[in-house]
Fold each of these.
Amino acid sequence: MSTGDKILGVLLASVAVSGAAFAQTMPVKYGFGSPVTEQELSKYFSIPVDGRGLPSGSGNATAGAKLYAENCAACHGEKLEGNPAKGIGGDKLIGGRGSLATKTPVKTVESYWPYATTLFDYVKRAMPFNSPGTLKDDETYAVVAYILSQAKIIQPTETMDARTLPKVAMPNRDGFEPDPRPELELYR
Amino acid sequence: MKRPAVIYDEKAQRMADAMIAAEARHMARRKAELEDCDCKKGMFATAGVTDRRKFLFAAGSSLAGVAGAASLAQAQDKAPPGAIHFNVPDDPTKEQGRAVNADGGYGSRSQFETEVRWRFPTANENTSWSMTPLDKMLGNLTASGLHFERHHGGIPTIDPAKHSMIVHGMVNTAKRFSMTDIKRFPSVTRKYFIECSGNGLTEWNKPTLKTVQGTHGLLSTSEWTGVQFAIIAREVGLKEGGQWVLAEGADAAVMTRSIPMEKMLKDALIVYGQNGEALRPEQGYPLRLLLPGYEGNTHIKWLRRLEVSDKPFMTREETSKYTDLLANGKARQFSMEMEAKSVITFPSGDMKLPGSGFYNITGLAWTGRGRVQSVDVSVDGGKTWNPAHIDTGPENICTVRFSSPWMWDGKPAVLQSRCTDETGYVQPTLQQLIAIRGSNGPFGSIYHLNAIQSWAVNEAGEVANVHG
């Protein structure tokens, strides 16, 4: 459904006002808004599962361990176990594999997240919580590599970059299904 | 029809002149403020450049007469949030009240009205939520200052003069729309509820919170004003295959959700107005997405970007969070619609009835799938049901206020309400929901609890949250 770029005239309204019909020609497009350049757009990102838009750069778990200790451990724990303390409340990032079908499921990056691209997108976007978006892309790749290797999803030696990250096989990759509601047994 | 000419006597003429002058001063000040900012594109005033304190004291000859800056601050300390404390005269008919407009031109609520939202005590107060005091609410709309909140990175302060919304991705012409641009488009004004899909998440296994504010307070209703996304879509031109739209906020969480294009074109609004004024900061000032009937998290606040795509982005908030993990270990994803639900707000948890006799049971009912068709009320724990009065005209994807007269005989009773929507969907019992989704809450399927709520009244008249 492509709407052409031309400004088209359309007979918008024909309304009777005090007995006399009038018709007004209004534009299909109002022409508001200004063009955006590719350069302006490059400030923004949102990384889908195929990795489109992943920045250049790379990192591995060795570099990531140091960065994690400095930037993340205070809130997510030395061992990525989370920190529920008042004023902190950082999620547990690893563990919980095999727990999803039990009475006490533990949802973490390791046990629950279906895509590694989401981890990169989210850390670049919103972490560290106290200074979001301050890590460089190399640093983000490194911290992501560290979390994934601590979760035993990748080898400690593997390098994460725009090519390798989308290929990471997350344990719960097939754990999601589309919303089947409405639940038909609940109809009158 | 010819109207009779308005005749002013001398006094009325003086008043009219003074009003015109005051308005002119107000307009001049607004114009001066506009000229100070570098965004005065178009013919519409871009709000938000007023420094409120400067404004108060510049305007303030009348205010200064009532309270200086220090005593004003003190007065505010004694009063509940949103109110100012004033001494109560013995007889208000024997002395003059406060001067007109002594509030600086923006009113506050009575110092005797104390209801407030309270915050769910998550460890981190920047990613937390606060609940609307439904038990104290009158009518159908939520006062803007009591609208529930859920933020993942606090409430940002955004200058609307610097704010814009970019629309790009699978479009013919990527565009940036300033607030002025957005307000120039034709607008619509509609009442919709917003409910967080986590509303009631504490209540899956056992009755946990005491009050209806705690169990159901992530629900609020407002009148919203804004532009239909469809108009914006026409402006940028959609490319073939654009099935999803990523919406992004300008807060510290840079919140993102993927929304089906079908929904965006059906009824999505880009809103800047709430209950007759600009959005509250906590509600996304200056711009938010409004997706009628969808779970609250998708109504991206502080909206700054829409990216059209062929696939969803699988953001953190649509994978790690806001997915429904069922007992079998599989999780439902993109469970967007909020289903039919209702709750009795009076009498409700932690209240005490003074004695047997007449009570007007009242509450709210809503559905994300259209209009509320009917509401039934039971006073015997669901054994028998009576149709409730619908006290407000049912509107699309809007709450209704219902009521049901009750003669309490002083014996233990269990009060329930049940909503049926126009699609024929009937609000389920908790047992029905658990039979379908399994019982792994509150860790697993924490979202989308729309079960019938039960309030038990004991012989002493005390009302408690129970599972029916």
Amino acid sequence: MSLLDNINEWIYSRFKIKDLLTSIVKHPAPDYAVTNPLYCLGGTAFLCFLILVGTGIFLAMYYKPTPLEAYKSVEHIMTVVPMGSLIRSIHHWAANMMIAAVMLHMMRIYFMGAYKKPRELNWVVGVTLLLITTTFGFSGYLLPWDQLAFWATKIGTGIAGSIPIMGQYISLLLVGGTDIGAETMTRFFAIHVMVLPLTTAILLVLHFAMVRIQGISGRL
Amino acid sequence: MSLTETEKKKGEKKDREPVRITGLPFFPHFLLREVVVMCFIAGSLILMASIYPAGLLKPADPFDTPTPIYPEWYFLYVFGFLKFWTWDIGPIDAKMIGVTLPMVLWYGLLFMVPFIDRNPSIDIRKRKVAVALGVIALLGILYFTYFSIVHH
Ligand code: HEM
């Protein structure tokens, strides 16, 4: 018996994990989902999310969410921190790719009619995920605190703030004052690194659970 | 677990999962395809990140408005629509409509798609209305994105 077998045996005799795993591991994926690359889009979005979490944790270790230090800390990441420039750029590209993948994934669901009974609620969870993904982009855009970040956020919060009824609350919640400043930064930072990742994770569990329970839709 | 036990388990499962038809087991076949796709994605990300690093402009200056200010590409259509819509409807201000329509109404419609489309067919030839509306929505978004870039 090798060491690996021993470890396996030790764990198995206590937790029986293998019994649970076989049903996952042997679970058949239908042929049409394996051969049609359109079915990869959801998984692509998910992989991007994982990469964003990983690179995001790295960035959060160097980033300082105050108007005085934010720009300098990003500059520091780009020029001094080992691999900092690469990691920030991967974060940037994974964010864009995730949005594109989510949109294309949604188009596949729409044009294949995969939202129909019994999958209505998974579509609703999906649209919420799309909203969250774009909000991720919006909140992340401000954080480097450069000219584009500041002014795009000013215009964006201005637009969100002029939605009837909800607008004033949205802008109070987001801006935290009358103008984009330190309050806005900490809010956007908290939303970007705490609120959105947590809600995304919860919704993804729901999303995947529903796909698993209902099976992937299809014919072709 | 022995092979026969696994088979038995699968047999039991079948009754409860009529949705599942023939296919490849998740492991290793399906996962292998996933891993290939993942490598491709990770590779393209690293490539893009190396060739086009994330930018950083001058530090923010609240007293100096730069031009042009572009939002992220996936918000361009919202700006485009705001610029496009210049007509008041009765007492409702054109700006108000330009803001509300693409954000509130559009997302509201998106959420409602499964409840609006009651046609049970998933055959694309029997879903002409849904497909046409989808194509129109897509073209609209593309057009307003284009509009926001041209009329900057
Ligand atoms: C963070 C974003 C999202 C992730 C990571 C994600 C992930 C996935 C994955 C991995 C699947 C399995 C099938 C496939 O990949 O095509 C799936 C299925 C599904 N997704 Fe998403 N998704 C996301 C957003 C959305 C959006 C925006 C919608 C629609 C508005 C949506 C609606 C659905 C539906 C209805 C299914 C079931 C499809 C079927 O049974 O054929 N998802 N999702």
